[in-house]
Amino acid sequence: MDELELLKKDWDKSSTNYPTLNNEQLYKLINKKSSSIVKWIFIISLLEFSAWTLISFLFDGAESLEKMKSYNVEHIFFPLTIFGYLVLFVFFYLFYKNYKSISATDNTKMLMEQILKTRKTVKQYVIFNLGFMCISIVLGVYIELTNNPEVQTMLTNIKSEGANNIYIFYLIVVGLSVLAMAVIAAVLIGFYYLIYGLLLKRLKSNYKDLKALEKAF
Amino acid sequence: MKSVTEQNFVVLLQEHQNIVHKICRIYTNDSDAHKDLFQEITIQLWKAFPKFRGDSKFSTWMYRVGLNTAITLYRKSLRHVQSQRIESVAYKLSYEEYDDTKDEQLKLIYGAVRKLNDIDKGIVFLYLENKNYKEISGTLGISEVNARVRMNRIKTKLKTQLNS
Fold it and tell me: What pTM value is reported for the model?
């Protein structure tokens, strides 16, 4: 006899052996807190959005704005800041829309795709921010080099000490900037790998499994 | 205060709770995990209840939400640490009652099914629940042909595992 048929017989037979919870017990259960991955993705995403907003607030502080004004470059920074916030709103809207469309009533494949889509939006936002931050660092370093009077004096001093020194100085500045960007990117990528890796490992493997089923034909 | 919706829902859930227990039985290995998954499925059912329009049977809808929770949404929680919280709902659940069947062969088959991946477990579960391939494919979001082929592969997989 087929193994599954054997199992089915027992399955039907044992269907009366399950515990029966009364209404009061069920009522208590449905009012408990969920621990689903969707809830965790939502919480982590909100943290990501707030962390990046906080970072941009720190960089756009009154002090740095004053400095930018004294350099006469606020015409560059003002539109950049507005652009940054606009992008934040667009991403947040997309994220919220995706999150709202996650429904346990969909079929399994659609549900998985919707969760992955929600996660992807946040990932794109983070990638955008990393890019935005790199541009800001490059721009910031350039503006400091060309506008800061202290740096100007330093540059003149270095130049007077020898023609080659200035190239070494620029090399160090570029090297440090690249290093700073690489460290920030590495820390973030490691963090995401850890958090989402743990959270989505099972979903990804199940999704792959479903997809593999389709490719076979 | 319990709302009317909540009362209606609990009555329906009470009536069909066996479905949830059966999903837990396929997807978990011990009674703690069973209780944990049972709790998460009931929460997800309640959360999705506003979307239940009554155009399908409540039980059909439950299969879908329940399996989605077991396969995708459920995250083995930290609730094991807080198991007293579940105990407060204290319901009797002994795996010996339905799992430690005297039949050695059945024991092996149950063990082999638990070793299958999440998707295959879902297919086996729906098969055991007398669902046809159309319903199986509709629940998982795969084509009917694929569901059939997969089922055959599962049968072979189980056979190989049990004969080795």
Answer: 0.83
